[in-house]
Amino acid sequence: MIRASLKSLLARKVRLLMSTFAIVLGVAFVVGSLVFSDTLNRSFTAIFASTVGDVVVRPEGGTTVNGQPSTKTVPASVVARLRGLPEAARVDGNVSAVGTFVVGTDGKVVGGFGPPALGANWTGAPAGHDLPGLEILRGRPPHGPDQVVLDDKTAERGGYALGDRVRLISSGRLSLHPRLVGVAGFPGGGSLNGATLAVFDTSTAQRLFLHGRDAFNDVWVTARSGVSEGQLRDQVDRALPARYDVVTGDTAADESASDLLKAVSFLTTFLLIFAGISLVVGAFLIVNTFSILVAQRSRELALLRALGASRRQVAGSVQLEALTLGLLGSTAGLGLGVVLAVAIRALFARFGLDLSGQSLVFEPRTVLAAYAVGVVVTMAAAWLPARRTGRLAPVQALRDEVAMPESSLRRRLLLGLVLLGAGMGALAAGLFAGVPHAGWFVGGGVLAVLLGVSSASPVISRPFLVAARVTYARLFGSVGNLAGQNALRHPRRTTATASALMIGLTLACTMAIVGDSAKASVDRSVAENFVGDYIVSNVFGGGFPTGIADRMARVPGVADVVRERYGFGTRDGQDQGIAATGAHDTSALGLRMTSGSRAALRDGTVLLQDSWAADHHLAVGDALTVVMPTGTRHWRVAGTFADNPVVFFPVLTTLDTLARAGIPRQDNALVVFTASGATGVQARLDRVVQRLPVVTVKDEAGFAAEQRGPIDQLVQMIYALLGLALVIAVLGIVNTLALSVIERTREVGLLRAIGTSRRQLRWMITLESVVIAVLGTALGLVLGIGFGVALMYALRDQGLEVISVPWGQLGVFLVLALLIGVLAAVLPARRAARLDVLRAIATE
Predict the structure, then answer these.
(1) Residue ranges of the alpha helices (H) in 264-350?
(2) Over 90: is that where the pLDDT of 813 sits?
(3) 463 and 484 in contact (C-beta within 8 Å)?
(4) Which DSSP state fits 798?
(5) Mind giving me the DSSP string for 196-265?
(6) Under DSSP, is residue 611 helix (H, G, I), strand (E, B) or coil?
(7) In what residue span(s) does the ABC3 transporter permease C-terminal domain sit (predicted)?
């Protein structure tokens, strides 16, 4: 039986290739996601290991929870004291800042959203454990206020060469034009993952980033030969007062890498979700493929039964074939997965996360996952067809009467309804009941609904297939009637192929509704709450010099300028954003108070967004406890206000309160009010920031467009990944049609023999493909609209109050489905039309 199964498999090389194809695609997406995730983790771990010393001395609260330096520093006297330690080879003070942007020779800012724009001082200190750290690759270190060193990737992207004047924008100074004297990088390979780095000498960095203070953000202590990090740490710790945090370089690197990987962990989750989607889509195609293959081999398997093979042996032969195909598909999927990982890396590079300096990481678990997915899913997919074939009577199979019993369809309908009910219940619990781990309920509910609809689709889609046959018969005559009957003859095969397309389109439609609703909610919130005449902000979400507000206040036609700032602390172990403005500017911001009074806001107090206050059980007079860089703060609640898009976070305090908590004094946004009747004000405001491309002046429409930008970016990224799943579904249609043509070889020959032309045959297969594509699209649209509306309704208390269905975009999806149906049929139809008539009739 084993020999017969393998010979049968090798005798049908075309079927072997096409059967393996679905497995390859499903495995490739899983492998690509795992390889990219491992590469991301390795990249950040390697960078932080190369950017810490043997021992790191930090002030308590030296960084905010979002990783930016606070106002707390280490005095230069500490460096002098540590240099006297017998176990220290050298001691170096480091100055660092976030918000030093490099403007390329084309006038555009190098970098983008996500990776930071860093500024630092040059020390030449070695990394811990003698690892190769940042080194000068070309040129020399900077000396004096007119010199700068850039990292190699930034210099390349900015178009700068040694000796050029580099245009920089710093949060401390409006604009700088130092000369590029050196290019730095990691000699052992690696990069800053899309971040930019501008390096100055120590005195210049202190003037730019620490307002001229002779201090540092942290200190590196390098151990003498033979001294361990632990020994050096203990000696440094004994030499300093308790207000300093002394850790080994390994600890500092692990903490930094863990914090950053936690911040970008959504990427790993995001990719694994899409790997799961791809796997589900691939599983549908594999099940469909094996159903066709088993039906095609029914006569062969029946002959084996007649020769004495048992049901178990026949089913085992199908499982052996599945094992062989799973191994072949997993091997090919591994290779394609690496190519896919490169494509994913290029996709994220477009959004600022550049991992090109890190080679792809191929962990052993990736290989195990590939074969586990490919083999297990394939054998599980082949089990049902194998079991069903084992129950067929030999005489029935020899007559080629292999039709699924109606009782089986009824069982599928019952199973589908059960899954549909369970999925709807899980969705309702996750979206509306506030159960713990709601995301798992939502994800499980979506999967159960999709599987339920797929299981029941052979029955619930029958009216559609009947209507399609009747419509085809009227529009295209006998050719259309045959196409409709072919789709109706095997409803399981038709709907299984359509279900693969349905899953991708369901998620695409859901995201279209979520994205459109989020943008509509932003537009309405801005229209209802926009105050002032112009908003000034950093396009990358960071800060900018306080001098801009002073200059704009002197612009003719400007009546008032309101500053807004923000920082981050920790509350109950969770990151908490805090906004700030002038104590007397809350009325100008248009805050609609729901309790308390705007006038009660003063230093040491806060106003809270009403829904956030209710969620955290806070009211007027209560104390809000937040851990800030300068220590724990207890701020009294002076009032609550309705949601306002101009206030960035649900906690609002005064500028001085935020500064005393350790947040640097730099503005994050300005609200500009113009005098009545003033004209040409925006042009004059634009001239104030014309040399600062990261700072923009926007009216109401421009501000709304800027708020919609991140939503569009996220939706585009999701569409790009969903596109890969849809490609799998489309290729599955091609695969199913091609196998169907092989199965119907004799039928095709008879049609040609009685006078059907090649053109009519191609048209018949094309119409059949269109039925599959439209059915999948229709199911996807219905489910996608349902999921999207339910999700937005559940988020109505999070500021997303508008539910908007982009009917035009959904119409585009339907048109694309028709196009997909036509294109998917090209190759199978061409093969059918080229079959030799006599050989086709003689085929058994």
Answers:
(1) 265-296, 298-306, 311-349
(2) no
(3) no
(4) G
(5) EEEEE-HHHHHHHHSTT-SEESEEEEEEPTT--HHHHHHHHHHHS-TTEEEEEHHHHHHHHHHHHHHHTH
(6) helix
(7) 273-392, 721-836
Higher-confidence position of 216 and 134:
216
Closest CA to 794 of 524, 435, 418, 453: 435
DSSP code of residue 785 = H
The reported pLDDT for the residue numbered 732 is 67
Give me the chain's average pLDDT, please: 81
Backbone angles phi, psi at 838, to 5 degrees: -65, -40
Distance between terminal CA atoms of the chain?
21
Per residue in 493-535, pLDDT tens?
Answer: 778 778 777 877 887 888 888 888 888 888 887 777 677 889 8
Segment 751-759 shows an average pLDDT of: 81
Nearest Cα neighbor of 234 from 248, 224, 252, 219 is 248
Task: Report in angstroms the alpha-carbon separations of 30 from 23, 276, 445.
Answer: 11, 7, 22
DSSP for 479-500, please give it.
HHHHHHHHHHH-HHHHHHHHHH
- 111 — phi, psi (to 5°)? 100, -160
Residue 563 tokens read as 């500053």
Q: What pLDDT score was predicted for residue 21?
A: 73
**pLDDT tens column, 424-473:** 888 888 877 767 766 677 778 888 888 888 888 888 888 998 999 999 99
Q: What does the radius of gyration of the chain's CA atoms come to, in whole angstroms?
A: 33
Report pLDDT for 406.
Answer: 44
Residue 200 reports pLDDT greater than 90:
yes
Using one digit for the tens of pLDDT, what is the confidence trace for 110-124?
875 556 788 899 988
The whole-angstrom separation of Cα 651 and Cα 580 is 8
Give the Å distances, CA to CA, from 674 to 200, 322, 410: 40, 73, 71
* Axis crossing angle, helix 13-49 with helix 364-390, rounded to the nearest 10: 150
How would you classify the pairing of strands 695-698 and 135-139?
unpaired
Pair type for strands 695-698 and 534-538: antiparallel
* Matching residue, tokens 């393996």: 20
The pair of three-digit structure tokens given for residue 766, joined into one six-digit string? 């094309």
Q: By the 8 A CB rule, do 325 and 20 touch? A: yes
Segment (H or E) for 752:
helix 745-753
- What is the rounded CA–CA span in Å between residue 395 and residue 45? 65
pLDDT confidence of residue 546: 82
Distance between CA atoms of residues 837 and 117, nearest Å: 69
**Backbone φ, ψ for residue 174 (5° rounding):** -65, -50
Ranking 330-344, 574-588, 807-821, 826-840 by mean pLDDT, the lowest is: 826-840
User: What is the spatial distance between Cα 352 and Cα 714, in angstroms, rounded to a whole number?
Assistant: 13
Q: Where are the domains of the chain?
A: 1-69+227-402, 96-209, 407-460, 461-530+707-844, 534-698
Q: What is the pLDDT of residue 346?
A: 80
pLDDT (0 to 100) of residue 138: 92
| Amino acid 402: pLDDT | 45
Query: What pTM, to 2 d.p., does this model score?
Result: 0.69
Rounded-to-integer distance, Cα 431 and Cα 439, Å:
8
**Three-class DSSP category at 780:** helix
Distance CA 184, CA 147 (A): 14
Pairing of strands 651-654, 574-581: parallel
What separation in angstroms does the CA of 333 have from each of 21, 270, 549, 844? 9, 21, 57, 33
Measure the CA–CA gap between 675 and 334, rounded to whole angstroms. 65
Of 173, 134, 174, 172, the residue nearest 154 (C-alpha): 134
Check residue 639 and give its pLDDT.
Answer: 93
For residue 247, which of 398, 534, 48 has the smallest C-alpha distance? 48
Residue 142, CB-side half-sphere exposure with 13 Å CA sphere: 25
Region of 801 on the Ramachandran plot (φ > 0 left; ψ -120 to 50 alpha; else beta): alpha
